Amino acid sequence: MASLPTLDDDSDYEFSLEEETLLSQLVTDHTTTQPIVPIASAIIPNQVETPPRSQPDHAFHDAQAGHGLALKRPSGAWAKDPKSWSTGSLAEPPSALERALRDDQVVSYPDLGKALSAFVAPQAPTQTGTRSVADPDTRSPLVRFRSFPKKPFSVSDLTAGSWCELQYFYTLTRLPFGRKTRTVAMKEGTKLHKELEDEVHTTVRVEVVSKEDAFGLKVWNLIQGLRTLRDTGLTRELEVWGFVDGNLVNGVIDGLSYDHPDPEFEAELRKSQESQPSITDYFASQKPGMQRIPQIYLTDVKTRGKRSTANAAQLRPAKVQLFLYHRFLSVMAAEKLDYLRIFRRYNLDPDEPFSDSFIAQIASLHDDEFFDIDHPSHDEYVPKASGSQQLADGSQTSTVSSAPDFIKYRTLRELLPLLVAELKQTFPHGADSVGRLLSVEYRYRADGSLIDNRIFPMDDSALDSYIGGTMQWWKAEREPKGVQIEDAWKCLYCEFAEVCTWRKSMDEGRLRSSRERLEVRRKNSGQ
């Protein structure tokens, strides 16, 4: 499976790891006098203009092509001679002290004692925990953090509220790039996921030049993942897209397999159909006499630092996550996903040719199908540059080049029919080919051994109810909520516990309730 420089899903803008490292240097070392040279692979810096003097010497520029960073150097004469940045070799106007010594004048210094004693350093505003002080921006989180030009929703965005909405709101508004602080446990979990993926795929690095290249690589990885699933019965890290309340959402499914997670459990659910007709919502309807069709089942992998099973509160985010994956994959399998709408959200041109280097790299991996002398035309997603155009006088002119073109899949539009065909071959019965039993694997973080496997059916009504509620706070129709009192143990692991308004209000409420009870007891004892 091909890969490109890793993009963190938790970042508002899709910075690569190298870019974030450089940006961190620029923020923390903005007073340094030494030039900073970015080191990153497959990055093509863009040519930028010299910044005006009013801007800081070290600034960053988010280049579209290649996800590169272009460093702005100091402006004016200082920029012409890099040696002068640290040595100060350029001629400068003499200082007052130098002029005084040169002219044999007596140097006198002003008395700054009174000025310094009267000077009071401005105090940093105290965090009262109220939203009006800590976060004066009144726009909705959807507009601020997940609307163009920032990246669209991820499945993680939508599931975060099932743990604690207020924690995620603080993450978006108070942490750099709106991303969670990477802990040792998170890094170990990422490492285990990578090890599981390497058991199925062989990663090959592919350099991309344009954003169309980058998304084309995602499509090729999806195609390769579907083929691996058909060939081996298992695939991992399969990316899917879907829409929630009109907003694009992307996610990556940990595992897909033809292996049924629990046939006995499904049989028990089916037997209960007679007494509970609503249970039919969990399973796809089958025509009488129709043989059981092969189905593909979704799995999510969670890691734990101790060998204990997850409680209901810990399981809930994983259930919502798998519900979303199942819905998105079912829509894709049914050929109902509007890919051109996805391109518009990402600001991609479906008819922009891939770079020559990208085509060469992908062709070397798929040479058996990348060149076709027949080059069949497709009825769907026809490239705008193909066929003929109607002129004003009624005549037609061909827009196809006279020279034969044996290379297929030059653009995203040309690549889409192949993706649709691969989905149809993998899911021949459309959405019915996606199994409605979902499973969460809990693995021990130290060695990857299986701790527990939780299995549950897909629940569309529960997902609809959850989405309706969580989108209310994303659209600022209500304030984000914290945890309930029975889940207050979550606060022990939260980095915002000391400034959390929800926790403070709950503490004040409990204190007020205790005082009221004491007051009632005093009154009763005095009677």
UniProtKB/TrEMBL annotation:
GO terms for biological process: interstrand cross-link repair. GO terms for cellular component: mitochondrion; nucleus. Keywords: 4Fe-4S, Exonuclease, Hydrolase, Iron, Iron-sulfur, Metal-binding, Nuclease. The keyword Acetylation does not apply. Pfam families: Exo5 (PF09810). Its cofactor is [4Fe-4S] cluster. Residues 73-94 are annotated as: Disordered. InterPro entries: EXOV. GO terms for molecular function: 4 iron, 4 sulfur cluster binding; single-stranded DNA 5'-3' DNA exonuclease activity. Belongs to the EXO5 family. Monomer. This is Exonuclease V.
